[in-house]
Amino acid sequence: MAAITETQDMSTATTSRQMLLRMVSRVWAWLFLGMLVAVFSVSAPGFFTVRSFQNIGINASETLIVALGQTFVIIAGGIDLSVGFVMGLVSVVAAVVMRALNLAGYPQGLVLLVGVVAGLIIGFIPGLINGLLIARLKAPPFIATLGMLGIAKCFAFLLSGGQTVGRQPDIVRLLGNSYFIYVAPNEPVTFFNPPPGADLRSVLGVMTLPLLIMIITAIVSHFVLAHTRFGQHTYALGGSRDASLRAGIDVDLHTMKLYIVCALLASLGGLVWTMRFNSGSPIAGEALMLNSVAAVVIGGASLFGGEGKVMGTVVGAFIMAVLYTGLVMLNVPPFWQFGAVGVIIIMAVLVDQAQAGIARR
Question: What are the Cα distances from residue 281, in Å, to 140, 163, 183, 217?
Answer without folding.
Answer: 29, 7, 33, 23
